[in-house]
Every structure is written in C-alpha cells, then in structure tokens.
Amino acid sequence: MEVVRTIMEGVLRYLGTIALTDWLDIALLAYLLYRALKLVGRSRAASLGRGVLVFLLALALSDVLRLNSINWILRNIVTVGALALIVLFQPEIRRLLEQVGSSRLSSFNPFARVQQTSVIETAIAQTVDACAEMSEAHTGMLVVFERNLKLDDIARTGTIVDAQVSSQLLKNIFFVKAAMHDGAVIIRDGRLLAGGCILPLSHNANISRDLGTRHRAGIGMSENSDAVVVIVSEETGAISVAIRGMLKRHLTAQTLEKLLTNELLPAPEEQETQDKFRLRLPWQRKAGKEADGDADE
Fold it and tell me: Does residue 229 contact residue 144 with C-beta atoms inside 8 Å?
C-alpha cells in the first residue's frame, strides 16, 4: 500500500505541474491525429501510411542493431521524405484543407440561416421520380447533393443553372442527345446549381470492373467531399448511391428516397434544437405565441 500511495502522490504532483495551455496543446494534437488517421483510413492512403510506418521501423531497427550502411541510406532518404510524402498524399492533404477552409459553421452558430426543409424534400422527391423513370429507360444520371463542403470548383467545370429542381428538368438534362447529359448536376440547398460538371474519378483499385466511368466519377466525388452522389446506370438501369467512397447498389425508388432523406435532412431532434435557437423578429414571436395558444385550446 505504501508503494501505491507513493506512486499516486508522484502522479498527482506531476499533474499539478501541467498548465491549462498544456492540456489545450494535448487536446489539439490528439484531435489532429484523430482527423489524420480517420482521413487516411478512408482512402487509398492507408497502404501508403503502412509503408511509411514500416520504413520508420526499419530505420529505428538499423540504428539499434548498428547496421551503419543501411542506416546511412535510410537517413538520406528521410531528407527528401517530407517532399515525397506531400506528393504521395497530395489528394488527401488537399481534401483536408478544403474541409477546414470550406466547411460551413452553421452548426456552431445558433442564429445561422436554417435550410428550408420543404425545398430539400421537394428536391429529393423530384430526383427520385426522375431516377425511377430514367432507370426504366436505361438512361444514365449523375446527381451530386452538396452538403457541408462547397463544390464551387466542380460547378465551374459545367454550366451554372441555378433553377428549382424538377423531375422534368433532370430528364431534359440527362436526355441522351442533350448537351449536358455526359456530366453531373450539382444540387445545393435544394436548388439545381449547375449541370454538365466534370467529377474526379476514383483511383480505388478495389472497385468492381463491372462499373464504368459514371460510377467511378460518383465514387471519386464522394471520396473527395462529403457529398451524396446518386448514379443511374445506362447499361443496367440500376440506381446506386455513393457516400464517403462507399457505393450502395441496386436501390429501389423507395429505398433511394429514404436514404436521401436520412442523409440530407436533419433528424427530428436536431430540427427541434435548431427551431429553439432560431432568431425571430418581434411580429414572428407574437404570431408564434398565438399559434401555441391555439394549439393548447
């Protein structure tokens, strides 16, 4: 017991020497490591990351075992290793910086503009109707639903439309002889932002060879952003959805609508929280109180 007490006293004395800034430093470092590991684990950089760890382990062992020649070679490789890592991990580093710089902060701002749920619901319903009809006709579609990460650079590769989403408009865009049918459309906040957009292709070697360029573009878009991508195959008419690099295939119209609703609309609890913090003007508060009174009656 005396030994345990001595150890505990030493630990407490050590913790007492740690300042608040030290705790903040540790928390920030842990968060950055968590984000980096999460980013690497979801992409092809996972195998590269394991290769780097093997290289560092070999460097440490060569130093411990005094393998001077190997250690000298490995140390010289390290001098250019930083530049090599930047080149190898360029897509992942770019995506991380885009997420940091382009993400919306509405979740941290209780007075931020709340998206019109009805507009998004309409966009989902119209998209599902178009996908169902185009699936029966075996006409390809590629629809990108933007979420937190803005896709302005992708939108600039196509034609800015900025129109209300409708089934007829989507069918016209993806009609075989239409000018924009080979590209993708981007939907932002329930409105069709752009059409004929060029998406980045996925370089994942594990993707089935049965999937063509349209599916690879959809998966690549979901790998490089937090977007939800709807794909209709021109060959089979199958409806698929790509989210975070994962492809869900052979969806029915009902399943597609449910999936899009779950991914794009806030949960009921989250919506109630947003409504509580929503900024109302004086006459809106009065109207709200009157409505509450009528409901109570």
Answer: yes
DSSP state of 194: E
The helix-helix angle for 90-102 and 81-88 (nearest 10°) equals: 70
Check whether 149 has a pLDDT greater than 70: yes
Q: Which residue has the tokens 């009805």?
A: 118
Find, among 76, 92, 88, 91, the residue nearest to 52 by Cα: 88
The CATH superfamily holding the domain 117-265 is DNA integrity scanning protein, DisA, N-terminal domain (3.40.1700.10)
pLDDT at 99: 61
- The neighbour count for residue 147, using CB atoms within 10 Å, is 17
CA 86, CA 82: separation in Å to the nearest integer?
6
Residue spans of the domains in the chain: they are 2-103, 117-265
The Cα-based distances of 61 to 48, 70, 75, 78, 80 in angstroms read: 20, 10, 12, 15, 20
Cα dihedral: 223, 31, 103, 271 (round 10): 100
Partnered with residue 241 across adjacent β-strands are: 230, 248
Per-residue pLDDT band for 83 (boundaries 50, 70, 90) equals confident
CA distances from 14 to 7, 23, 233 (A): 11, 13, 62
